[in-house]
Amino acid sequence: MIKQIPMPTVKDITLKKSMTADELIKQYLLSGGFTAKNVSLGVDILEKMHNDENCFSFLSFPACICATGCRGVIKDLIKNKLVDAVITTTGTLDHDIARVWKDYFHGSFIADDKTLHKKNIYRLGNIFIPFESYGLILEKKLLPMINDIFKIKQKWSTKDFIWEIGKKISNEKNGKESIVYWAWKNKIPIYIPGITDGAVGLHLWSYYQDHRGIAIDLFQDEQELSDFVFEAKKTGALIIGGGISKHHTIWWNQFKGGLDYAVYITTAVEYDGSLSGAHTREAISWGKIKESADSVTINGDATVILPLMISSLLDRI
């Protein structure tokens, strides 16, 4: 009976000196490893997305990874024009912009949070963020920028507002390490549907108290997303984590019959019904991913998985 069912054999991984990330990732596909195989399938799908000239590609991710070195991987995806549009959260702006001027630090998941609070140190997982590296620096740097930007005109989409910030930090010493800088430089749109949910949003609201004529035009963002989706012959997405950035990406794509390519990376579980934990197969039921799509869900920490995957992808393209 077994011989009648076509089943690839499990192959051992062979390690060698100076092997590339792609050489290792390709062995993952043959090894039959649990998450490893899906990581390899994910790179295959990203490669297909990149090589498909008819595909408009989305990247969505939450802010937390921008507090880590994974910020550099996101930056390189945008710098190398490997995505066409980004949907994320306000915290991405907060961490990305703050780190242009101030450092974040290694910490611990099991630190004494009461002690940290007394010392004005925020903890994001095992990253320590001193108050002066976040609240103080953003207030100092952002408010003059916001004032300058709204002197140009009174209403901005999140995309255009973000590009203006990218332009303004272009001459800073560490400006070219920024996600926002490369989005402006390469004219890759970043959309933030929940713009008020973070420090940048707070400073916009604070400025609004004395400048009631200003506005953030979310409808312009939505119009552009609609145009991208309906004008594209195919769409694909690399979706890291969940929340509003994930949902906004798959939400718009349901109106064109669903994504043609989808790669999810998540640590969330699906059995509580959360969007963050929902696998690609659930999105198929909504028409947010096509039945015929190349798709995979990869369970694991993006700070481990994403650098491996993108390194492998860069080896191929």
CATH hierarchy class name of the domain at 41-101 and 158-197 and 217-316:
Alpha Beta
Which overall shape is indicated by the principal axes computed on the Cα atoms? globular
CATH architecture of the domain at 41-101 and 158-197 and 217-316: 3-Layer(aba) Sandwich
Largest sheet: 6 strands, parallel
- Helix content, binned percent: 40-55%
Poorly predicted regions are none
What does this structure look like?
The protein has 317 residues and is of the alpha/beta class. It has a domain of 201 residues: Deoxyhypusine synthase (Deoxyhypusine Synthase, 3-Layer(aba) Sandwich). The protein has 13 helices and eleven strands. The strands form three sheets. A six-stranded parallel β-sheet has the order 7-2-1-9-10-11, sandwiched between helices. Strands 3-5-4 form a three-stranded antiparallel β-sheet. A two-stranded parallel ribbon has the order 6-8. α2 crosses α13 and α3 packs parallel to α8. The chain starts with 20 loop residues before the first helix and ends with a helix. The mean pLDDT is 97.
Quick overview of this protein structure:
This protein has helices spanning 21-31, 34-51, 71-79, 90-101, 113-118, 135-152, 158-168, 179-186, 199-208, 218-231, 243-253, 280-286, 302-316; strands spanning 55-60, 85-87, 105-106, 121-124, 127-130, 155-156, 190-191, 215-216, 234-240, 259-266, 289-299. The protein is of the alpha/beta class and 317 residues long.
Features:
Deoxyhypusine Synthase, 3-stranded antiparallel sheet, 317 residues, 6-stranded parallel sheet, 11 strands, alpha/beta, 13 helices
